[in-house]
Amino acid sequence: MQILLVDDDTDSLVLLEQILRQAGYDRVRSAMSVHEALQVLHSQESAGKVDVILMDVMLPQVSGIEGCRYIKEQEHLRDIPVIMVTAMTGEDDLEQAFAAGANDYITKPFRKVELLARLRPALGLKQERDWRKARERELLEVSTQLQIANHTLQMLSCQDGLTGIANRRHFEETLRKDWRQALRDQMPLSLILVDVDHFKAFNDHYGHQAGDACLKRVAQTLSLSLSRPGDVVARYGGEEFAVLLADTDLAGAEKVARTLCENVRELGIPHEQSPTAPMVTISLGVAAVRPIQEAGAEMLLRAADDALYRAKALGRNGFES
Ligand code: GH3
Ligand code: MG
Ligand code: MG
Ligand code: MG
């Protein structure tokens, strides 16, 4: 434990230090004024390490009472117990010292056993405060880690493992939310369902791994082809994707569908076994509604699915609405 002595009388300092060292306290520092004491408290080797201050009251320039008050006003110093050591024994002096935040008071000439007896609880108090602070810091650290973990989990729970875009769960949540928003704002909402053409044949011919890589590229292309911040693309199923467009009417959604179809085709991923084209293509079903109170978001899904079915039947590599 480190003890800081503040006294303008050298004899007092020597005596105090001697007693303390004899009692086994070998980390003792001295200061002859409040100013010097603050220098020690802020110095490299003692900052945050002083465990108790023994402070004389009668000091040049700034009194020990003022010094104590100042220390107790500082957030980073106020935990250090201050014991006043003084020859001034009046009741007023005592009152002032305690009002300034002093933890204890010893009168000079002091008895050795009294000094040591009063020192012990003060040091115990400091230790307890340090321990509590360390616990608080630990708890804060743990709670920060938990928050990060929670955030990560939440992100992962919305993400499709293979492609990194939103998963079906997140899509369905967003669909419900966007539907309610569109209903409130009386705005249109559009949905595009996307299905990779002849993908079973692609897998059979190129292998499942190439199939996975193809799905990743298609997902990325769909995602990069959307321009509005509110647009959401999700993996809806195996080789099916869903694109949700808020505040978008049918004409707008058809434009997006055309772009998506073109962009995937332009990736030029070879697909020799496809009867449609010698490359990977997609079919799209487009639906747009202005939500009404009486219907739910399922009607939009059903309409997009019907349109996708027609796009497939009509030859694939295109969209229907
Ligand atoms: P269509 O043009 O009518 O859509 O024909 P299709 O072959 O794409 O349709 P089908 O539903 O018969 O086959 C879908 C295929 O997608 C079958 C399945 O093996 C493949 N598939 C689904 N999920 C994955 C996946 O995560 N990775 C890979 N590599 N293939 C997948
Ligand atoms: Mg003095
Ligand atoms: Mg399919
Ligand atoms: Mg398919």
From TrEMBL:
- Sequence positions bearing 4-aspartylphosphate: 56
**What domain of life?**
Bacteria
Q: Which GO terms describe its molecular function?
A: diguanylate cyclase activity
Specify whether Nucleotidyltransferase is a keyword of the entry. Answer: yes
- In Swiss-Prot or TrEMBL terms, this protein is called diguanylate cyclase
InterPro entries in UniProt: CheY-like_superfamily, Diguanylate_Cyclase, GGDEF_dom, Nucleotide_cyclase, Rev_trsase/Diguanyl_cyclase, Sig_transdc_resp-reg_receiver
List the SMART domains. GGDEF (SM00267), REC (SM00448)
Response regulatory domain: from which residue to which, for each copy?
Answer: 2-123
Domain GGDEF: from-to ranges: 187-321
Q: Which reaction does it catalyse?
A: 2 GTP = 3',3'-c-di-GMP + 2 diphosphate
Q: What is its EC number?
A: 2.7.7.65
Record bears the keyword Magnesium = no
- Keywords, A to Z? Nucleotidyltransferase, Phosphoprotein, Transferase
